[in-house]
Amino acid sequence: MLAPQVRKTWAPKGKTPIHRHRYKHDKLSVISGLSISPRRKHFGLYFSFDEANFRSPQVADFLRYLLRHLRGKVIVVWDNASIHKGEPIRALLRRSRRLHLEALPPYAPELNPAEGIWSQAKRSLANGRPEGVEDLLDDVGDALVGIGFSQSLLRACVKQSDLPFFD
What we know:
This protein is α+β, with helices and mostly antiparallel strands. 37% of the residues lie in helices and 16% in strands.
């Protein structure tokens, strides 16, 4: 959202830092996928933005995007969110033999490596003040590209999860 994520920051002694911003309800929805190649153990980060909430048709579009960019079998491990269900997802599964979906247990964010990506992105966006959705898009995009270029940050996201690590 356009309201800044406020984190601890520095200020002169006795001066409380003040974050001035316009309170708008504009927001940006982001969907992401973390890939791990089975042989080289190379990590990749894929993401897409939308100003509206993602629903199952957009999730199916994102899965098609992943299938175009990844070779071989694609196993998606995700939570049980309602947007991960529905006819567009089932139709895609019927058409694509390479795609396999595995659901995490309900209420288990500690198992989801994507939580580490969002934690890192929010940390880099903390105390920012985007003027509009375009600025927010640029800031979030820059944060995710930076994370995506770092094999060590992506590896840390998998290691911090309670999933078995692929070493």
